[in-house]
Write a structure and sequence with these properties.
Elements: H1 2-32, H2 39-56, H3 61-84, H4 92-113, E1 121-122, E2 132-134, E3 137-139, H5 141-163, H6 165-175, H7 177-182, H8 187-209, E4 214-215, H9 219-234, H10 239-259, H11 264-279
Antiparallel strand pairs: 1-4, 2-3
GO cellular component, one term: plasma membrane
Subcellular location: Cell membrane
InterPro entries: ABC_transp_permease (IPR001851), BCAA_transport_permease (IPR052157)
């Protein structure tokens, strides 16, 4: 019972971070019909920005988080201007290769800027690392803080879509870009906003995740795969599906690592992607035919 409760809490915490990564992937895909393969590197780069602010410059963690999110938004907007806008009328392969190119550029920049200080950088914990017992359940305060932060980010994101004019225009463009253009929505700006918002969500996930792990330039691809698996499982066009998929992936990973073998942690995401594509290609909450990927 003690092990199960610990694994479930760990899985839900990690799954909440995967859900944030998946949300960013889905936001860009819904608006543009393209998977941003640089999403993981945007996540990684934002984590390093937060490390620089908090560790090297002494900025308080609550201040470093929104600054890193703002940096992530700018990087996402730049991705749109560099890799998507000039190729907007090109075929899907060209768009995919452009985002892959951006990923390698960001990874190289991270090595140039931070790699010389060591491939693995630690981020100070924001709470006590010592576990505490709540009844028969072992709880690590750091995990609770990360889980609470992820829930706040998800709620803020949902409010942005439902209550703001920009969020409603993004939804309208995602539903039908031609109709959105006809009613006067500048879809080019919405695409930029979508890339920026997706990267900002990834940045929030990176800052929340940083105290739980180590930062290194190659970490982006691993988290992208986990987020992509969550998005595929939930449905590449469904925002609630991305959250559900992230939580399921996190719990599956934790249980597989705890009860089977730690090596299953890394392969479980690939297994989920293959099973979903075979059994239900639109995902648990996805609907309709998938657009360009």
């Amino acid at each position: 019972m003690l092990l199960l409760s610990y694994l479930l809490l760990s899985g839900v915490t990690t799954g909440a971070l995967y859900a944030l990564v998946a949300l960013g992937i889905v936001v860009v895909n819904k608006a543009t019909g393209v998977i941003n393969f640089a999403h993981g590197e945007l996540f990684m780069f934002s984590g390093f920005v937060a490390w620089t602010l908090h560790v090297q410059m002494g900025v308080m963690y609550p201040v470093a988080l929104p600054l890193a999110v703002a940096a992530g938004f700018l990087l996402g907007a730049l991705t749109d201007r560099i890799a998507f806008r000039p190729l907007i009328k090109a075929d899907v392969i060209s768009l995919v290769l452009a985002t892959v190119g951006i990923a390698f550029v960001l990874r190289g920049l991270a090595r140039v800027i931070w790699g010389g200080k060591g491939d693995y950088l630690s981020f100070p914990p924001i709470t006590s690392p010592e576990p505490v017992m709540i009844g028969e359940i072992m709880v690590i305060p750091q995990q609770l803080a990360v889980l609470a932060g992820a829930i706040v980010v998800m709620l803020a994101f949902a409010a942005f879509f439902r209550l703001t004019r920009a969020g409603k225009m993004m939804q309208a463009t995602a539903d039908n870009s031609k109709a959105a253009t006809l009613v006067g929505i500048r879809t080019a700006r919405i695409y930029t906003l979508s890339f920026g918002t997706g990267a900002a969500i990834a940045a929030a996930a990176a800052v929340l995740m940083a105290p739980l792990t180590l930062l290194y330039p190659d970490m982006g691809f691993s988290f992208f795969i986990k987020g992509f698996a969550a998005a595929v499982l939930g449905g590449l066009t469904s925002l609630p599906g991305a959250v559900l998929g992230g939580l399921i992936i996190g719990v599956i990973e934790a249980l597989a690592g705890g009860y089977i073998h730690s090596s299953f942690i890394e392969v479980s995401a690939f297994v989920v992607i293959m099973l979903v594509l075979v059994v239900r290609p639109t995902g648990l909450l996805g609907a309709g035919r998938l657009r360009r990927v």
